[in-house]
Amino acid sequence: MKRFSVVAVSLLCLGALGCGPQGLEEEGAPGEVGENPSQLWGRPEAPARLLAIPGPNVVTLSWLASPGATSYRVYYRSCTEAYSDQHSWTTTATTNYDQFPRGQVFYQVAAIANGVESLPSPEATATAWVNVAVHQPAAQSTNYDPTYALAGAAVDDNLDGNWFHGSVTSTAWGNGGQAQWWRVDFGATKSIYTMDIYNRTDCCSDELAGVYIFRSIDPFPTQGSWSFLTYLKGPAGYSTTLDLFGVDARHVMLQRDVLDRALMLAEVRVYGTPEDNEVPTVPGGLTATVVSSTRIDLKWNNSSDNVGVKNYVLYRCTGATCTGYSVIRQAVPNTTFSLSDTAVTAGKTYRYRIRAQDFAGNLSDYSPDATVTTP
């Protein structure tokens, strides 16, 4: 069985989240145009459409199955590393998880059939989200007890919701006619994607209800620097997950919507990455195929992003020379990178284009147009 060797290329790190492309190359691979190494060596086909989706402390990988493959080898590298046998694992599934985030990670996967390993798939990359709030400075409007249930207990990485075990925060019940609040400082601006809020479990769950959530990018926030993020009606269960849509924040604040009621928290986890201003690559290979007078099938190639692609935004206009594009669909990434447009009619020309959007809301440039006419 032949082994992969690392292509001799230099890595150019473009900051904490950027890194140039690199790949695996087979030793002794024929270089003549038109030769197919998989056919020459009896290898399985390389897995297609590798997808990497970030999440809290995990990157989910999926790809299309290779015919005849009985297992797969997943290779990974960081910006400062190279692909190697030491940076790999074997799996029999076409969905797998990297649960050891190391910042931005690049992946390739190879199929194995009859002991023979395929050439590697195209590369995919993502950055797992990490809890940017853990052990960061926290404060609250008042303290129920000056020596107990202080603000830092909500970011101590302890999910125990029992008040008597010392890891639940609580403000006082009175605040001079003001709403009680709790907040955390990440220490720098982050792109935040989700927030997990854990409630007290031994009683008083209604003290985590009716909560406004705000954010600020000001290092020293004033009353006017806070902007509204979302609202937690509650009462929260043991835990509640809120989608924060990749906004930038230096601070997050939770504030009761009633006066003089306590605010209690077992833990607050805010998942994010360093500020994300990098746009995804342009989706390539957009094709439009007429299936019938009322259906057009669309396919494209995946985009790449330093954190990860959240969805693809598909645009359409009607007419061979039209310019009035409008959004018709947002497609969540999957290994088929396809969808069907059934809102078309007979005898018309349609033009399509597509953009990728990352978890921070950054949009790629438009793809080249694909144009078709229904019968």
Description:
- The chain has 375 residues and is mainly β.
- The chain has 3 domains: 124 residues, Immunoglobulin-like (Sandwich); 137 residues, Sandwich (Jelly Rolls); 87 residues, Sandwich (Immunoglobulin-like), CATH 2.60.40.
- 1% of the residues lie in helices and 45% in strands.
- Strands 11, 12, 14, 15, 16, 17 and 19 form a 7-stranded antiparallel sheet that branches.
- A hairpin with a 2-residue loop joins strand 3 and strand 4.
- The longest helix is centred in the first third of the chain and has 5 residues.
- The chain is globular and about 70 Å long.
- The N and C termini lie far apart (52 Å).
Provide a short characterization of the protein structure.
The protein is mainly beta and 375 residues long. It has one helix and 26 strands.
Proportion of residues in extended strands = 35-45%
Would you tell me which CATH topology of the largest domain applies? Answer: Jelly Rolls
Q: What CATH architecture of the largest domain do you see?
A: Sandwich
Q: What would CATH call the homologous superfamily of the largest domain?
A: Galactose-binding domain-like
Shape assignment:
globular
What is the domain tally? Answer: 3
Distance from first to last alpha carbon: 52 Å
Number of discrete helical segments: 1
**Element string (H = helix, E = strand):** EEHEEEEEEEEEEEEEEEEEEEEEEEE
Report helical residue fraction.
under 10%
Query: In CATH's first tier, which class of the largest domain applies?
Result: Mainly Beta
- Secondary-structure-derived class: mainly beta
In the predicted model, the low-confidence regions spanning at least 5 consecutive residues are 1-18, 26-39
Global Rg: 25 Å
**Largest β sheet strand count, sense and barrel closure:** 7 strands, antiparallel
